[in-house]
Description:
single chain, mainly alpha, 2 helices
Amino acid sequence: MFYLSLVMFAYLLGPSLFGWYGIFLGPLLMVIVVQFLQVVVPQLWGEEPTSGLEIGPTTVQETDDDFDDTTGSGEATDGGQ
């Protein structure tokens, strides 16, 4: 998803800019900036958003309502505690 060199620079430049917090803030800011550039900027330019996911209709699945989950003796599985 992200270029390895970009992640490396995020981990190297983050602590130099933000100190100890930069270990976490550097990669976090990198993800925010890259996602902004990939999602928001094309929409600002008027391009159609491209969706990588095809979402189809949901289907009804069988449930296990008829399944009897008690043991043969009728006791709880945790020893009755």
